[in-house]
Amino acid sequence: MREIILFYWQMCLLRDGPERLPRTTFVLATTFVLYVVTALTINLISRNDIGIAKATAFVMIGLAVEIGIVGALLLFKSVPDRLQQTLTALFGANTLILLLTLPILLLMAQLESATLTLVLESVFLGIFVWWLTIAGHILHRAADISLALGIATAFGIELLAIATTYAIFPLQTTPG
């Protein structure tokens, strides 16, 4: 287990890529489950106004968008056989990054200081940019595209996932 975590950490540091991951359904399924549980926990903590059903829908919509775009990209680049390793890498690295954000989100929920909240939101934004770089690096290695295009694709996936989620579940506005 320690070796797996260290491997994903190396990917987060942009020192390794998805090509070294085993191409097995078991590894993908295990990483997928860990990612879903972590993402669901983060959604429930950061959006305390939604229930488990809606939080699950948010996570699944994001996953569908991510899997669809990554699959299409790899198909377009004529390397569809890399999908399993790429998704395993994305889910594993994202799980680590989400676990890093967990203490920040828990602290933000308890803070009443606007200044400290702003600092923590800035740290959170920095981690998000780091995640885009990691995902871009994974896509760069898997699809044989430039790092910049990988990062842009990762950002596009995030935007499309958010847009799709809010198209299905519009923001609730309170009458003012």
Commentary on this structure:
This protein has 176 residues and is mostly helical. Helices cover 78% and strands 0% of the residues. The model has no long low-confidence stretch (mean pLDDT 92).
How is the topology of this model organized?
Blueprint: H1 2-12, H2 25-46, H3 52-76, H4 83-110, H5 114-143, H6 147-168
Helix pairs in contact: 1-4, 2-3, 2-4, 3-6, 4-5, 5-6
Distance from first to last alpha carbon: 52 Å
Basic shape = globular
Can you write the helix and strand succession as a string? HHHHHH
Summed over residues and divided by their number, the pLDDT gives a mean of: 92
Which key phrases capture this entry?
176 residues, mainly alpha
Quick overview:
Helices cover 78% and strands 0% of the residues.
